[in-house]
Automatic annotation (TrEMBL):
Its cofactor is Zn(2+). SMART domains: AlkA_N (SM01009), ENDO3c (SM00478), HTH_ARAC (SM00342). InterPro entries: Ada-like_dom_sf, Ada_DNA_repair_Zn-bd, AlkA_N, AlkA_N_sf, Alkylbase_DNA_Glycosylase/TA, DNA_glycosylase, HhH-GPD_domain, HhH_base_excis_C. Gene3D superfamilies: DNA Methylphosphotriester Repair Domain (3.40.10.10), DNA-3-methyladenine glycosylase AlkA, N-terminal domain (3.30.310.20), Helix-hairpin-Helix base-excision DNA repair enzymes (C-terminal) (1.10.1670.10), Homeodomain-like (1.10.10.60), Hypothetical protein, domain 2 (1.10.340.30). This is DNA-3-methyladenine glycosylase II. It catalyses: Hydrolysis of alkylated DNA, releasing 3-methyladenine, 3-methylguanine, 7-methylguanine and 7-methyladenine. It comes from the Bacteria. It is an enzyme of class 3 (hydrolase). Residues 87-185 form the HTH araC/xylS-type domain. Keywords: Activator, DNA damage, DNA repair, DNA-binding, Metal-binding, Methyltransferase, Transcription, Transcription regulation, Transferase, Zinc. Its EC number is 3.2.2.21. The keyword Transferase applies.
Amino acid sequence: MLVDSERAYRAVASRDARFDGCFVLAVRTTGIYCRPSCPAMTPKRRNVEFFPTTAAAQSSGYRACRRCLPDAVPGSPEWDLRADLASRAMRLIGDGAVEREGVPGLARRLGYSERHLSRVLTAELGAGPLALARAHRAHAARTLIETTTLPFADIAFASGFASVRQFNETIQTVFATSPSALRAGAQKRRRSDAPAEPRTGTITLRLPFRPPMDAEGVLAFLAARAIPGVEHVEDGVYARTIALPHGSATVRLEPTPTHVHCRLRLVDLRDLGAAVSRVRRLLDLDADPLAVDEVLSADASLRSVVAATPGIRVPGAVDAHEVLVRALLGQQVSVASARTSAAALTRALGEPLPNGDEQLTTLFPTAQAIAERGAEVLTGPRKRIDTVLAVCSALADGSLQVHVGRDHTELVAELQALPGIGSWTADYVAMRVLGAPDVLLASDTAMRKGAGALGLPSDVDGLRTRAKSWRPWRSYAGMHLWHAAALADSHSNTRRTA
């Protein structure tokens, strides 16, 4: 269990939405499982049991509540905080690894035997990898049923089911209704100005998060680094191209006070689950902002900035290889210079996007393309060019694995063992790719400048010592320091202009 049963019941009794996604409540007398904040009458303690995942509840014979939709909630922040085998497996399952590679492929990526992996997941999460993947498929199928007019046969295979019969049986078991009834119910609830998407591969979703959320800060971070043709930020909307396992896609994200409005255009609908998982990680939508702010506010030097910017997020990644390459290009240069280098690389080696538009035209270059032709395009110090080419060669041939299922310590050690990669780059990649919540880039010049502006130690050793009290949320504290540095620069420029 991720929370003890007594604490879980108190959360249910108070309908505390902070715990949505952290566990589910199952009621023995009704056979239904719910999210903690379900508005239904709170059942008696003796009639309930708690499960860490929806898959565990389904495996025990419970079906999803139609009123609170327990599968349509933010994910648990525990998957990033714990970073153990079960957590890393959950990240990969959410990315669709089982549908694409099966349990053997999932176990291979994690570096364990199938038997050991199944044993750990069953003990920790109440369900094995197949059951967890089944719950993931059921949620993806429900999304397609309710938001598109696709035939059910197409939805079945797009969601990863082996047959239409398996699809129908799973929907009936999990939701206690048929696909036709689910679609009919969605049509009744839908507003007249929000029709279902046609059969074009375009899907509109509402991505939930735990408030508060500093959406403006996330968009500002992404806008400062946006590569023309790959990314675009305008009027509070972030858009970008994505390379997914079965094809390309574009996504447009518009944060609102209660959710992120997401519009996906997919070449292959089988990529829906992976796309949603990666977008959620990009915006850090599964974070627990109240827990983060409570710890950071305990430091008097951070209290005011936390109050001014509640719910700060750590931007993640939709493409692990892209983040690594861009981090290498950004070593010891400004954000603007790194962006210029990445843009030049993309113009030369990026693959044109099929059916693109004026804003989104190109996919970021693959590691193989950079390894083969990067020497013709890359500029700057010879050492940096050699590092980028060597790393991309290792990514292309598989000798270097960078993905959400990697162990934090092992990944950082492997990266630092490569010539030309220092601790800053390795930690930055771990923070963004793995969603590591407790990384402090103490050697970063801007971060130390922000620390000085807040009255914190600005030397590396002093900052690291002070940051011990920020555990396990030092990545979020670092975002506050970067923000403080940007404000200090803005005030300085204003004074010079005046």
